[in-house]
Design a protein that fits this description.
By secondary structure, the chain is an alpha/beta fold. The protein has one domain: TIM Barrel (Alpha-Beta Barrel), CATH 3.20.20.100. The chain is about 35% helix and about 10% strand. Strand 1 and strand 2 form a beta hairpin. It is globular, with a radius of gyration of 19 Å. The protein binds adenosine-2'-5'-diphosphate. Adenosine-2'-5'-diphosphate binds next to helix 10. GO terms for molecular function: oxidoreductase activity. It comes from Henosepilachna vigintioctopunctata. This is NADP-dependent oxidoreductase domain-containing protein.
């Protein structure tokens, strides 16, 4: 399958759709990634925090050594964890990610989240195993960004970018950087279209990537996946939120949240184009110049999600879809006690 590409402000090209891997656990991921590569996904999105880089590295390495893929065919994205949000943390965690992924460069390295957790010597970091952890109240984006630039100049990453930053935080980086961020990865779906941020990024030549493009189905009542369960014993308040972000083990269902794919308007447009609801919302992203990163462990749904380049939403569809934007944010991290008092908490309003 020929997947269209976009060009980053570094001149590098990136596929117009990615394969997301947050909350896909190791056992499942090995098979799932194999399916994803067979289905045609070449942009693979992970993070140190997801704790699945080693499995991804193993599968990618097998494909490369068997001659089924070349490294340059892939676009590998990983992210600096929140406990790496200090200048020395950048090279420390980037090098660990490269080792896990069995590559000598990544295509894009992102700062995962604008606020920080204090780093400790313990491996794995307690944030990944149930705490205790301490907030870092002194996260300094500019000194972290300088290190990100250094790593790009040294070739360990081809492009650099941000994730979960708000407009003011991005502006601050833009005002002081030598190398502009290439991408911004944020929660974005039919109920949270992020128009202001998308327009701002367009003006600044930053490409937006959408996580949870199907509306966080693994968190909401729309979830159909086995293995994720409601937990009656959440971990301490601080960790709950990070678990919600990435770790299926402790994932908390939010049955109170709306399911994007059951929306009657989306269902109507899907019927009109003989496509699925998922294909409609992913195509909507593509037509806005946004790169969706859907997650699935199911081969059929993976194929479905990438099969969105043979039709076009018309003006009427776009007008209808725009009406669905009501600002519903599924991942605001607010469950974590004290988080809204952090100077770098991004979703204050
Ligand atoms: P599955 O892995 O069984 O396909 P999000 O990233 O928004 O949280 O979405 C991920 C969730 O959406 C997963 O639970 C995944 O389940 C489900 N999903 C992925 N693709 C589709 C699709 N095309 N239709 C319905 N659900 C999907």
């Amino acid at each position: 399958m020929n997947i269209p590409v976009l060009t980053l402000n570094t001149g590098k090209i990136i596929p117009a759709i990615g394969y997301g891997t947050a909350r896909v656990n190791d056992g499942e991921l090995e098979t799932a990634l194999d399916f994803a590569l067979k289905a045609g996904y070449r942009y693979i999105d992970t993070a140190y925090y997801y704790q699945n880089e080693k499995v991804i590295g193993k599968v990618l390495n097998e494909w490369i050594t068997q001659g089924k893929l070349r490294r340059e065919d892939l676009f590998i994205v990983t992210k600096l964890p929140p406990f790496g949000n200090y200048p020395e943390g950048v090279v420390k965690y980037l090098k660990q990610s490269l080792k896990n992924l069995q590559v000598n460069y990544v295509d894009l390295y992102l700062i995962n989240i604008p606020f920080g957790i204090k780093d400790v010597e313990t491996v794995p970091h307690p944030a990944l195993t149930g705490g205790p952890v301490e907030w870092d109240l002194k996260t300094d984006h500019l000194s972290i960004w300088k290190e990100m630039e250094k790593q790009m100049n040294s070739g360990l990453t081809k492009s650099i970018g941000l994730s979960n930053f708000n407009k003011a935080q991005i502006e601050m980086v833009l005002q002081h950087c030598s190398i502009k961020p290439s991408c911004l990865q944020i929660e974005l779906h039919a109920y949270l279209q992020q128009n202001e941020l998308v327009d701002f990024c367009k003006k600044n030549d930053i490409i937006v990537m959408a996580y949870s493009p199907l509306g966080s189905r693994s968190v909401t009542s729309g979830n159909a996946k086995q293995g994720l369960r409601k937990t009656n014993k959440p971990l301490d308040e601080v960790l709950r939120i990070f678990n919600m972000l990435c770790l299926s083990k402790y994932l908390i269902f939010r049955v109170d949240l709306p399911d994007v794919l059951s929306n009657p308007m989306i269902q109507k447009i899907a019927k009109k184009h003989s496509k699925t609801e998922a294909q409609i919302v992913l195509r909507f992203d593509v037509q806005r110049g946004v790169i969706p990163i859907p997650k699935s462990s199911n081969e059929g749904r993976m194929k479905e999600n990438i099969d969105i380049f043979d039709f076009e939403l018309d003006e009427e569809d776009l007008t209808d879809l725009k009406l669905l934007d009501d600002g519903t944010r599924f991942l605001d991290f607010k469950d974590a006690e004290g988080i809204e008092d952090l100077p770098e908490y991004p979703f204050a309003n």
